[in-house]
Amino acid sequence: MSLLLLGLWVLIGGGLLAALAGRSARLANLVGAATAVAGSAIALIPVVGVLVRGTSLPEWSWVWSVPFGSFTVGLDPLSAWFAAAILGLAILAAVYGAGYLVHDADRKSLGPPWLFFNLLVAAMLLVVTARNGMLFLVAWEGMALASFFLVTFEDEQSSVREAGRIYLIASHLGAACLLLFFASFAAQAESLDFSRLAAAAAANRLSETHAGVLFLLALVGFGAKAGFMPLHVWLPEAHPAAPSHVSALMSGVMIKTGIYGLLRAWTLLGTPPAWWGWVLVAIGLSSGVLGVLFALAQHDLKRLLAYHSVENIGIIALGLGVGLLGLSAGSPTLAVLGFGGGLLHVLNHALFKGLLFLGAGAVLHGAGTLQQDQLGGLLKRMPATGAAFLVGAVAICGLPPLNGFVSEFLIYLSAFQAFREASLSATSGSVLALATIGGLALIGGLAAACFTKSLGIVFLGEPRTKAAAEAHAPPWLMTGPLLVLAAGCLIAALAVGPLLAGLAPVLAVLLHEPSGAVAESLAPALGPLNAVVSVGVIAIVLMAGLTLLRKRLLGPREVRDSGTWDCGYAAPTSRMQYTSTSFVQPLTDFFQPVLRCHKHVHEPRGLFPDAASARTHHEDLFLSGLFSRSYRGVSWVLSRLHWLQHGRLNLYVLYIALTLVALLAWEFGLGELLDQCAAWLAARQTMLF
Amino acid sequence: MDPTRLSSFLPAALALLLAPLLLGVINRTKAAFGGRCGPPILQPYYDLRKLLGKGAVYSRTTSWVFRAGPIVTLSATAAAVLLVPFGPCDAPLHFAGDLVLFAYLLGLARFFTVAAALDTGSAFEGMGASREVFFSALAEPALLLGLVAVAKAAVGKSGWFELTRLHQHVGGVLWLDAGLVLLFAAVALFLVLLAECSRIPVDDPNTHLELTMIHEVMVLDHSGPDFACILYGAAIKLWLLSALIVSVVVPRVSPPWLDLGISLASVLALSVVIGVVESSMARLRLTRVPQLLVGAAVLAVLALVLESHT
Fold it and tell me: Which chain A residues touch B129 with a CB distance below 8 Å?
């Protein structure tokens, strides 16, 4: 535990040092990155220890004079699982960030971004280790604010400021729900310590309705951070605006703190009723399918990746929903498979989404734009980045032999288990399995369409613009973390055994069962997963063998270079290639009712046509339909109160005084005050007579 | 090695050896319908030998992804061979959920075919790739749900869903019990086969106009051994999907050699059926294909719903 706290202090202290070194941007860059790496690495030691041993560290408390608060931190396997993803990705993102930000050294002070980067990592670490509601909320707010300042790094652009505003509003709406959640929970438990909250729920002090309300508050509060549809609207705005190493961290692990919060809340709330699980499954399906559909229509690579985070959060929610249903039906196998798939996907998504965002950053760095239709052929200009991006693309589509498949496979297994489960009714088992299998298959197919698009349009073919043709490869500080993450995607797929062994104690925390019993429920998945690994290895060996065979065959023969076959056309240009828009046009047309793609086409007309053009843009159904409309309503209501705000200082002072009087009256109890008045009057009267 | 273990490699050996034969049978059937005598039934083998003996031409636009495409495609398809049972023999590898791995291995093959097509920078190949990912995104749920419906009918609540178990438990009794389920699932799988193996009415493998193709246009730039990999991979895919449909439709019979004979004959007969479909139908308009595939998915869902209520 002391190492964890030391890591925390190194992160915070290093951030402050970097901020103080503000004069020299390069020094701030060095100090910030070095302390981020050092602090994360130090904190990672006890985290890995907990995962390997499978036992929790004792809680550690510190005097803290905040009302209801205590600075209590603990590290159990559930916290360690998320902390491992956070710290591991933070190290790589910091190394990458050092290479990425150095180009802004002449333009901007690098102290603040590193201060907020380190604070973000520290806050995330504190979020997953806090054992007191007040400390949790403070860390949560610190995380939101630190990431807000990182999102608005390029604050000279109005679009970035707008993105920051949306992010700030969304995260505080979520935080408001969490405040209510903890306040309402604490009213029953009379404390904000997690252990006391859990004890109150275990002693049946929560009514069923109260628990349901708490579940919904947690769902909205944490779901806003995780990016559940329709609370996802901040994600595609904020993630593209941030510097790429920050987007990787935000998309890879920060949104997972929402998932962590939900899981932690469930461990506190006791046995869930079935409808909680169904709500999660519904959210998972809608986030998954709509997330990938919205991603398809994007032109900006980082926006596309942000929508894919919504999709992957959907897959995670699907797994968690199945797990909750298993928990409520009292079936450990179903619960273990569902939760296990969801949790494994948390880790896997951190790997490949981190990789893809860092890759997008390298594209922006090398070619100066993220508009996919202006790129092309980057694989030849930045080979390492392109190869790593290819690995990430295959992994995120959930294709074997990489890690995305393993976690999705576990969720598929949980769906098959739902069919066999005696504790579920035949109808609910079938509905659950049908939704999960059909949903995952559709998501998988659409994700493949989306990533063949971004890989093919950005990295393959011919460059579409001069900027793309002159793109340069990033420095090794940036390619290094990319290659490490790409290797991680393969290793996480092959090391299924150790990963499941590490997962068992985590699941034990969720199921409130001993680790051994959980490992037993997990055992039926081990054989299939090992078989999946062996088929993957066979496929890789076959690839190597066929490559050698082709080399032998072609060795003595003539191998020629030529132009691409274009059916006899003599003067091809790179603009004749398919674009990202045209590639997905059949799909976006097919899903037009939910996608709302707007086309602006200027067709060539007449005998001497002028320049033609076509442009599409996609609006987020929820942003334009739901939120903009309800915000207009809110702003209408608030504008009715405009007469209160007139700019006269003396009246504002009066408001303050009135508020203070009202608060005083409330504090002493209005009734008590009246009683006292009556007593005083009575005393006067007796005095008079 | 004991004989049962050895015999489990028979499905894989048959798939690898006989897959190109199916293409020959389809072509002969189509020729017979067209009143021609057609190419020899072993023509696909001759083509493969010819292509393996040639040099290669690579476009200057392409990168290593283009060269990796055919190899990954063939490797993934060949790895999927290990999961599919045939006749009296179990698959060499069978485990809970192997049908998911099967579908996703085909997905991996498709991913790299599409990536290689986009690597050429040709508008035609981009067009084919775009259609391929669209149709396969719709075909994937149909394939998985169809297989799951049959697996549920065959295995019930007792065991895990494996292709081999599904294959073992399809019998005459099952057709009496859950005939409609099997029928719906088989039709769904057949529609998926037509789409995935680029047959009419979804795609026309023999058309001469690149604008109307899907799969063939994606591989225009491949040549020599690379093209042999692609042709062979496509043939194996056709064999695997045919073998699965035969697993669903044809009941197991008792002497193993008879079972093997019937299964072989059924796979060849299915190729004749594909040939008949190709000869008697025109290719659908591209805007109609999604409706066909959504129809297949709906059939698969219906099969699953029916199965849950019997």
Answer: 452, 456, 578, 583
CA–CA separation, A65 vs A62, rounded Å? 10
Of A313, A322, A311, A258, the residue nearest A127 (C-alpha): A258
Q: Around B101, how many Cα atoms within 13 Å sit in the side-chain half-sphere? A: 34
**Both tokens of residue A544?**
């190597």
pLDDT digits (tens, 9 = 90+) for B102-111: 999 999 999 9
Q: What is the pTM of this model?
A: 0.92
Any idea how long chain B is?
A: 310
First-residue to last-residue Cα distance in chain B:
42
The mean pLDDT of B29-48, rounded to a whole number, is: 92
- Sequence-distant (6+) residues with CB within 8 A of A66 are A134, A138
What is the bridge-based pairing of β-strands A559-562 and B56-59? Answer: parallel
Closest residue, chain B, to A457 (C-alpha): B118
Give per-residue pLDDT as tens, A16-34. 888 888 678 788 888 888 9
SS3 A597: strand
d(C-alpha A358, C-alpha A363), whole Å: 9
Q: What is the pLDDT of residue A616?
A: 80
**Residue A102 has what pLDDT?**
83
Q: Where are the domains of chain B?
A: 7-308
Dihedral angle computed from the Cα positions of residues A284, A288, A294 and A298, in that order, rounded to the nearest 10 degrees? 130
Q: How does DSSP assign chain B, residue by residue?
A: --HHHHHTTHHHHHHHHHHHHHHHHHHHHHHHHTT---S-TTHHHHHHHHHHTS-EEEETT--HHHHHHHHHHHHHHHHHHTT--BTTBPPSS--TTHHHHHHHHHHHHHHHHHHHHHHTT-HHHHHHHHHHHHHHHHHHHHHHHHHHHHHHHHHTTTS---HHHHHHH--HHHHHHHHHHHHHHHHHHHHHHHHHTT-TTT--TT-S-GGG-SHHHHTTT--HHHHHHHHHHHHHHHHHHHHHHHHHHSPP-SSHHHHHHHHHHHHHHHHHHHHHHHHH-PPPPTTTHHHHHHHHHHHHHHHHHHHHT-
Give CA–CA dist A574/B121, Å, rounded: 7
Backbone torsions φ then ψ of B118, nearest 5 degrees: -70, -25
Portion 435-474 of A in contact with B at CB < 8 A = 437-438, 441-442, 444-446, 448-449, 451-453, 455-457, 459-462
> What pLDDT is recorded for position B157?
66
Q: Is A637 on the interface with B (CB under 8 A)?
A: no
pLDDT tens digits for range A236-249 = 888 888 999 999 99
> Residue A614 phi/psi, 5° resolution?
-145, 135
